[in-house]
Design a protein that fits this description.
Bound molecules: iron/sulfur cluster
Strand content: 15-25%
Distance between the termini: 110 Å
Largest sheet: 5 strands, antiparallel
Number of helices: 18
Structural class: alpha+beta
Length: 485
């Protein structure tokens, strides 16, 4: 018996043990350890390459972004304590929550659109659970060996060798998890300062808590729970079926072509034996990270990773049959035997175009709003302690306080003026400066001619504009109280 057969026997034995346990206890599905096979032929298979490309792309961005600098500060930083979000040249304040909401709406629409078109593309290629599971499985393979070796190792009694292998694997997983936690917290606290604090063992309590929390979640989800997260914990897996229809791309087994399945014989052709194209090699099941058999039809456990397509294509190549027994297709294409042209026509159906149109419109609106955004905010508050008083020369004085937010990253000078009443003028400083990304509290005195202003309240406009750019201007309306004489 070769190692592969032996491995298969071990997997079958553990599956059957779990089935027996399930028969006794139906409320709890006992977890069967899954040993997904990674190696299919030599080198990476087609969809495997795409999965690894997604791993590299997402992880270069995730681990690299906090280290990128912009204007002498971290390029992407969500500084919650200062209530400021930096995204490259953009500085967002709490008042800009609408832009963050816009970004989240775009992300949600993009997810809906891609799900309607390509099914579980997100789950199969870009979801952190998939990506970290892929990385953790890679570490596992480097330390414990391939699928068969791992299955045999797990059945071995504890020994010094087994202990060292397991300890090495968990140490590597924990190191990767803690680095992930550190990178994650580095999006909310300047990562260089955080690193220096860590090295000096002077890290703050909350930073330490979140590094450990995020690290622990990564270790638990990618190292231990893996497919269980997708099967039982992920809310997206539950509601995404609402976005599926009969023309959504899914990974399917071509039953009409594949059945009846069977190994075949060297002496007779498959047609003579009355067999379909599935040679029942089991490779599609061995590579599946969720341990399902795609030949049983669409199952909610399928995360759309396409590993079974690679596996089956490899087998088809080996036995000299056309590829595509397991492939991306749609329910309608399978039922109605549509060719790929007709299938793709339906993939880009009206519903998808409407989704795409909405996504484009929201993206353009957000980009325009960001481009037209004035990097100055002014809140004008009346001084409640002194509504109005008579000043020198028969003038009426009203006092206010301005909260001026300079949302740029440079110190800026501003000019303030007022209009709306005859002879209305600013009695306090008409020029002031505000530091970069600072909110300054500026006192404002407005004076008007007491002879010309009737008693009661009047609407007036206060204008604050940047000295160096007339386009950066904010006008606020407020009330001016006239006095009875
Ligand atoms: S059935 Fe295929 S696509 Fe679905 S999770 Fe398993 S290997 Fe991936
Ligand atoms: S890999 Fe293809 S041929 Fe082998 S069992 Fe799966 S569907 Fe059948």
């Amino acid at each position: 018996m070769n190692a592969v057969d032996e491995g298969r026997k071990v997997q079958e034995a553990s599956t059957s043990a779990a089935r027996q346990a399930d028969a006794v206890e139906s409320l709890y599905a006992k977890r069967v350890e899954i040993y997904p096979r990674q190696k299919i032929g030599s080198g990476l298979a087609w969809f495997q390459k795409w999965r690894w490309a997604a791993v590299w792309a997402t992880q270069i961005v995730f681990y690299g972004l906090p280290w990128l600098m912009w204007n002498d500060r971290q390029a992407v930083l969500f500084e919650l304590t200062a209530r400021r979000f930096y995204i490259f040249g953009l500085v967002l304040w709490p008042q800009d929550i609408v832009f963050l909401t816009g970004i989240l709406i775009i992300a949600a629409f993009a997810l809906f659109l891609f799900t309607a078109v390509g099914g579980r593309l997100w789950c199969g290629y870009a979801c952190p659970q998939t990506v970290y599971s892929e990385i953790f499985m890679w570490i596992e393979r480097r330390i414990e060996g391939d699928r068969t070796r791992r299955m045999l190792l797990d059945r071995e009694p504890m020994s010094a060798r087994k202990f060292l292998l397991k300890a090495g694997k968990h140490a590597a997983w924990i190191a990767a998890s803690l680095w992930t936690g550190y990178s994650f917290v580095g999006y909310f606290t300047p990562i260089r300062e955080l690193g220096a604090e860590l090295l000096a063992l002077q890290i703050g309590g909350w930073s330490a808590f979140w590094i450990l929390f995020y690290g622990f979640a990564t270790y638990g989800n990618a190292g231990w729970m893996r497919e269980q997260v997708c099967k039982y914990m992920c809310p997206y897996a539950r509601f995404q079926s609402a976005m599926f229809d009969q023309d959504t791309l899914i990974i399917t087994y071509d039953e009409a072509r594949g059945e009846p399945r069977g190994a075949g014989s060297r002496k007779k052709s498959r047609a003579e034996l009355g067999l379909g194209d599935c040679v029942d090699c089991g490779l599609c099941v061995q590579v599946c990270p969720t341990g399902i058999d795609i030949r049983n039809g669409l199952q909610y456990e399928c995360i759309g990773c396409a590993a079974c397509i690679d596996a089956c294509n490899h087998t088809m190549d080996k036995v000299g049959l056309p590829k595509g027994l397991v492939r991306y297709s749609t329910t309608n294409a399978m039922r109605q035997a549509l060719d790929s042209g007709a299938m793709w026509q339906r993939v880009f159906r009206p519903r998808v175009l409407v989704y795409g149109g909405f996504l484009l419109a929201i993206t353009i609106a957000l980009a325009a709003a960001l481009a037209l955004r004035v990097p100055l905010k002014v809140d004008l508050i009346r001084d409640r302690g002194a509504l109005a008083r008579e000043a020198d020369g028969g003038q009426v004085e009203n006092v206010y306080r301005m909260q001026v937010s300079n949302t740029t990253e440079a110190r800026r000078a501003y000019l303030v003026s007022a209009a709306g009443l005859p002879g209305l003028a600013v009695g306090s400083e008409t020029r002031f400066e505000v530091g970069p990304a600072v909110v300054a509290s500026i006192p404002l005195r407005l004076l008007a001619d007491g002879e010309q202003v009737a008693p009661g309240s009047h609407k007036v406009t206060v204008e604050v504009r940047a000295e160096d750019d007339a386009g950066v201007v904010v006008r606020e309306t407020t009330t001016f109280i006239g006095l009875r004489r």
